Amino acid sequence: MPKFDSKAFNPQAFGAYVNAIPNPKKAELAKSGAVGTNESARNALSTQTGSLYAKIPYFGRISGSTSQNNDGGTNIQSTNTTTYEQGYVTASRMDSWTERSFSKNITAGVDFMDNVGRQISDYKLEVKQNMLLSILKGIYAMSTSGGTARAQAANEFVTKHTYDITGAATDEGKLVGASTLNSAISKACGDNKNIFKLVIMHSEVATNLENLRLLEYLKYTDKDGVQRDLPLATWNGRTVLIDDGMPTEEVPVTYVKTSDVAIDDSKTYYTRSGSAGSYVYTAVENPVVGDIGSYYEGETFVTNYTTYVLGDGAIVLDEIGDGVPYEMSRDPKTNGGQDTLYVRDRYICGVDGISFEKPASVTASASNADLANGENWEIINDGTTWIPHKAIAIARIISRG
């Protein structure tokens, strides 16, 4: 076990030690096969002298929908393939933990820095999962208005790759059921739906499927011939991962006139239109106190759950390392002496089929807010042609459970 004295600290050994520690936490999305790499992006960005951002060729397909008739007297018309470019950005993260040397004196020698080391593998997975969820939030926040070709391509993806059943006529219809997954992937990719391999869902959704006997748990037979269930399930042939880190949203189902006299930034206010029995409530983006007398707020709420359906390597989050990933510093003066462990990581971020278009504001590292900003993502194109949305192996199901 590596020592945590700053003079004896071996960052390479510590890195191996962290990687070897079992991780009991979920963070299933970060560990799944849906998270892949892009070798070209890695070659361009993995060195410490590499850039923050890279455009990587994304090769188009040859056209073969109509073949030319050979009648012995017609010249062959030749076409060429289109080459697109896909943007990848790097995101660097850092943190540190400090423990006082005095702690050992009052706990019979308990090594608190050893405890920190044992938790870093969990910390890294949580960091990655938050980045992945930010990426997914960002691509579904792409601008779909304005009438431009870019917006139309984004709208086609967001609309067809979202299967929202929360507006169903009955409460039962708002829950996932026997046909939900197949309908969702068929809506997204049609005859290309087999690109989807993995479903990741909240435990509330999984429980509903279990109650309907729609989750099939894999089994193994032990040496005594006893068959047991594995904690890994399938749904319509797709591997299921269960993780309560998946997005949830509290949404109002009934509304009441607000009694506020000042704007409460923690609340969402709504305006009401239509007539009794068919009122429509619209969220106010920028509430002003002068209009507060006409605002409504949520009275009772329900939870919407987002389930993601993904293909292998659909999202790129490739850990490429920092120049100094682990570092220990000893401060002999403060608090009678203390050690600080510094951790740094660097990742390539991207989505297969969707390009990150780096804004001028991202100068050194993409933050989670940058990754979640829909303005920074665009369906891959060559300026005139956008790739078909059916090539993108990402879909989402929004349900009440």
How do the strands and helices of this protein lay out in sequence?
Elements: H1 11-20, H2 28-31, E1 35-36, H3 39-45, E2 53-59, E3 83-100, H4 102-105, H5 112-139, H6 149-160, E4 162-164, H7 180-189, E5 198-201, H8 203-211, E6 216-221, E7 227-235, E8 238-242, E9 248-257, E10 270-273, E11 280-283, E12 296-310, E13 315-319, E14 326-331, E15 338-351, E16 354-356, H9 368-372, E17 377-379, E18 394-399
Parallel strand pairs: 1-13, 4-18, 5-8
Antiparallel strand pairs: 2-3, 3-15, 5-12, 6-7, 7-8, 9-12, 10-11, 12-18, 13-15, 14-15, 16-17
Helix pairs in contact: 1-5
Overall description:
The chain is an alpha+beta fold and 401 residues long. It has a domain at 249-306. It is built from nine helices and 18 strands. Strand 14 and strand 15 form a beta hairpin. The protein is globular, with a radius of gyration of 26 Å. The two termini are 45 Å apart. Residues 1-7 and 105-110 have low confidence and may be disordered.
